[in-house]
Write a structure and sequence with these properties.
The complex is a heterodimer of chains A (371) and B (178). Helix content of chain A is 28%, strand content 19%. Chain A is α/β, with parallel strands linked by helices. A 7-stranded parallel β-sheet of chain A has the order 7-8-9-10-11-12-13. The two termini of chain A are 31 Å apart. Chain B is mainly alpha-helical and 178 residues long. Chain B is 41% helix and 0% strand. Chain B is elongated and about 85 Å long. The chains are: A alpha/beta (371), B mainly alpha (178).
Chain lengths: 371, 178
Amino acid sequence: MIKSIRKDLFYVESIQAMEPGYAVLKTSLPEIENPFLRTILVIEKALTSHTKTKDWFDTIVDADLFCSITDGDVGFINQRSQIRTVLSQNANHNTVLVTEQCDNLCKFCSQPPKKIDDEWLMVQAAMAVCAYQTDAAVGISGGEPTLKRQQFINFLKTIQTYSPQTPLHVLTNGRSFSDVSFVNSVYDATKGMNVTFGIPIYAIDCDVHDELVGANGAFKDTLKGLINAGNTGLNIELRVIPTRDNLDNLAGVIELAVRCLSNIVQVSVMNLEPTGWAKKNWSELYVDPREYQEVLRNALSVAKIASLPIKLFNYPLCHLDEDNRKYAVKSISDWKNYYPEECESCILKTECSGYFTSSKGKYHQIARRLL
Amino acid sequence: MKAKLTLAAMLPGFLSLSSSAETTLTHIEITEENTGGLVLAPLNVNTPLYIAGHRSHSSHGSHGSHRSSAGSSSGYTPPKKKAPISNYDTLGQPSVPKYVAPANTVVNIKALSKTARILLVKRVQIAMFLLGKYDGVIDGVMGPSTRKALANYRYSKGLGSSAVIDANVLNSLGVPAP
């Protein structure tokens, strides 16, 4: 078992009796009830001074959890007596899941969709963001968050009302934005807030894109969506994952962003993550970064000429040529991030993204000599 | 020196040109048909800086770094303000196990303290709003519109048609019981 940088899942026997769902985790005695979520007081060891004084919060004793959280973090309790810290001040980035349903079926989906009624996920996610009251960005992930349009608008409106200072980063396939009236509603529901939409487009050839995302007509919807969202004034982070199928489209996608789209705040080129369906299709999709340094160089130069910010995600620095390295960011979320033993003596370790904890066995590309 | 004089002399001409251009533009009618259901890129509706006479110096700061080369013909429109782009991979989050609702317990709303009751009703109102089932005020009061929405919601979920808050409805909405 590979150990991640930050542990986020804790087994606490005494929560067996508690209902599943989100809760505010306090390390100090809570004074007022949180308006959105129930409260749980987490204490290091059972002390008489910490005995329960109010009936609206539960108390759990767990030293491990106590040491890993900050007062006011939000956790998710599952029915296996586990607490996962979802919104934490100790995390390098926080994300909430709003649905597990999607209208695309991407070959490399890291979170394969499920056809179950999960309306409550979006309700609880909104409550969690409002309860947390942070001014650090929170990621909104799925599934496809905009699938149920009215609910997504209401989700944004709720945060706009109760926690407008929280910047949001929404991951969407952008297909819903092909509808102009929906884009306008989203624009209104995010007024006064700082929101970016991370929208992936994998190719400039519609067949290649549709094949990768497993949905006919997806390219047309997403491109229309990108045009509408950008021209309406929504911030867009354009995402692209190089695979064997779309590698020759990479520079083209950047040029499309430069010439045809507005309000692109960043282009993110992302290395494949060996999880979910990407594992199943790994041999078909994955290309060793060594094979496409020149392709990356071209794509980066297109963005550079137009002053379009571009970043490389999830690439260990030793897998990149020296001139491409300056675009790489330390991108992997801490709860699924690790550095193998051979990285210990590396001079670039502190700047390097390292590896996903799922990168092992045949999915693992060993660390290389820095050239 | 000569060039400067000529430019200054041409300024009134430029101004009249730009004003006549504006009037011709307004005659083009933009309809759904000729845009194919797309939002067109915003035109520069504000007076350009070189005509406005550089009145506001504060506006320069935000424009300074966007383009490295003058005369770049790229269509890239720089964003107005700093947007939250995470340098983290927000893709992928641990799968959430299926929600298993615990057995129904009776929630005696009347037994709750006043503040607890308002809080609970507020949470129910927000949850119903999020699901698109309620569009009234979030005030924590069990008024007629809240009751109606609650009854409709219960009916749509097969929980009867009363307007009662019980554990069934709280579980269904994802609201923790008090």
